Amino acid sequence: MLVYRAFSPRDTRRLGEALGKLLDPGDVVCIEGQLGAGKTVFVQGVAAGMGVRGRVVSPTFTIIHEHPGKIPLYHIDAYRLEGVPDAESAGVEECLYGAGAVAIEWPERIRELLPEERLDVEIRMPIDDGIDDGGGGRGTSGKGKRDGESLDDDEGDGDGDGDGHSDGDVSGAREIVLFPRGDRFRRMVEELKALAGPGY
Ligand SMILES: Nc1ncnc2c1ncn2[C@@H]1O[C@H](COP(=O)(O)OP(=O)(O)OP(=O)(O)O)[C@@H](O)[C@H]1O
Ligand SMILES: [Mg+2]
Prior knowledge:
Helix content: 10-25%
Number of helices: 5
CATH superfamily: P-loop containing nucleotide triphosphate hydrolases
Largest sheet: 7 strands, mixed
Order of helices and strands: EHEHEEHHEEEH
CATH class: Alpha Beta
Shape: globular
Number of strands: 7
CATH topology: Rossmann fold
Bound molecules: adenosine-5'-triphosphate, magnesium ion
């Protein structure tokens, strides 16, 4: 297990990038974390590390984005998937056993499909102090998702641009915890400890 402290989106991206450099076809990285935690930011780093060019945004509505690179990156947002048949028809299994590496946001939605060997990443946000600053947007996610999902959820893609991004900044600090499942990912996390630099 590796606990990494990211003080800014840049730190989160940098850890993702270090990871992306180590990924091979068939590798599966699952990124958990509440709305706006920074899952997509992390995947943007992974993509950069894999040599992907071009914009990486949450595949909220399309479920899967395939990015060409040295090897393809399959970026999956499983939030909207309802059960295994739904995931199958979206093409998730082809990605899991395809020619590229896979990064999955909201992997808990498709738990049954995940391979045993994988890297689980959890992005934790600081505990809400419970003080509502009166800012707008509470409970009005632009995605219309996560209703009642989380009590301290005051983030949302409330910017109205519908790009699947949560543009609001809660706080810069995140705790990113890596749980390797299987030897391959244990070795990878050991390597990351050396590569990721200061921050943990
Ligand atoms: N340390 C940090 N790491 C990552 N993002 C951060 C950090 N601090 C602030 N942020 C901000 O938090 C937001 C994270 O958005 P992002 O779209 O990556 O979240 P997400 O977890 O993918 O959300 P969703 O569940 O909607 O897909 C961005 O606006 C980013 O600038
Ligand atoms: Mg996202």
